[in-house]
Amino acid sequence: MSVLVYIENTDGQLKKSAFEVASYGKDIATQLGTEAIALAIGDISSDELTKLGNYGIAKVLHVSSADLKTFVNQAYASIIASAAKQHNASIVVLSNTFSGKGLAPRIATKLEAGLVAGATSLPTVSGDSFEVTKTAFSNKAIASVTVDSSIKVITINPNSYAATETGGSAQVEAFNAPVESSDFGTIVKDIVRATDKISLPEADIVVSAGRGLKGPENWAMVEELANVLGAATACSKPVSDAGWRPHSEHVGQTGIVVSPNLYIAIGISGAIQHLAGVSSSKTIVVINKDLEAPFFKVADYGIVGDAFVIVPKLIEALKAYKGN
Amino acid sequence: MKILVCISNVPDTTSKITFTNNDSEFNTTGIQYIINPYDEIALAKAIELTNSGANGSVTVITVGEASTEPTIRKALAIGADNAVRVNANPADAWYVANQIADYVKKNSFDLILTGRESIDYNGSQVAAMVAELLGLPSVSIAKGLSVEAEQASIEREIEGGKEVVSASLPLVVGTAEGVAEPKIPNMRGIMAARTKPLEVLEPIEVKPLTKFNKYSTPPARGNVKLIDENNINELVNLLHSEAKVI
Prior knowledge:
The structure holds two protein chains of two kinds. Chain A is of the alpha/beta class.
């Protein structure tokens, strides 16, 4: 028996969520009295992969081949499922990222395993009963899900399980799995990455703004605030619907759900759909001219006033703080 | 082009979510149901790709009990040509995906669209499961889709950017914002929907693998601490020493 965790990378660098998955897998393995094995696919150095040892992973299976450098949904799923079979994994853990969402259902289908997507805690295991909590109703609820299959697949939401350094080193092994030509049904033609941007789903700090900013020309101060904090930028639905900002920045029930350490909302009233997407943030700061805005009810800190006055002052105060 | 759009019947986005029967079931009292918003994007795209039926057909499928029929009729009013309801409680994603895959096996399609996820159980599972069951390629979170001569070009969302992916039909795609603008039914569509075919099928036997058996609502958040706009430094201090987030 083992726990298999799938490790994602971006251009050879392990993602932050990869360490979260490693810690989660390690903690389940400890619970079950077994070991956690990691699997990574792509052009990644051994030095980078051995970092996983510090998160409790003893062994890393590495698949490196020219035709698997970019994400191939079916082929990656086949490899992960065969590693799970070969290593007799009873649990497979992935991050609930854009790629993880494409892989996990395929792996679950191949293994006839129940899948819990978007888990937020370690499972509770007693005898044959296996139960995991996950967010449901777009963050408006937490559900407890039981899994009845012998193998289980779990994806965990980014930022919902802390990566914990344990010390230790990992051994990296090459892993070869048969991949069929029919597994190459999708071909990556181009990758467009905004290199200066911090990825929104994984960000520790998010600076978000709404219609209160009156127009897209006023976003410079939002970006500057984000820049000072090392934060990702986001927006409310009306803002992306109006085309002021791209859809990929829309946070809320029908957009991206985030759970950063700090969420700063500027000029967003706090409609129930928006709040659903941010309610698992650890600390929420709201800046709004209307004290009656519903967002204040879920905020930890609030400032009532004109964003065009407050945000520049906040930028100055943070610059002074960072300067010290 | 024959397109199948998988739709889910979900509570309206403004719904207050509560639970009943010792917190083991979603409380449906007073809840308005809608087409899952991401599925509306899939439906709009399907209508666009078939040029409103001039260049193919759009079938919608849902796994649900008779109570889901108003939602199916709305999809027909928006512009789907015909509809299928698999008469069963959608027990879990595995159960639903197997029902859909079975229907596709018996009625071939060039393109199968779903929303990127349903806003109730947020699994993002059905698209890739259906694809795997049928041995088809899939893209789970698409923010752009175009089809030309049996070849699809898809913009796939990735962290901090996008990937442009190509694939041959048949194909399964989970659509997100950006693929199409949802369509609002007009009077003619609503009238026509009444007479469009809605076939009811009995489910195949599938054992669900997961069960949602207990719910809770997230803990209420603390009282807001208001800070005077002339004292911004206090906020910086609190974020540093009290919240410990900067």
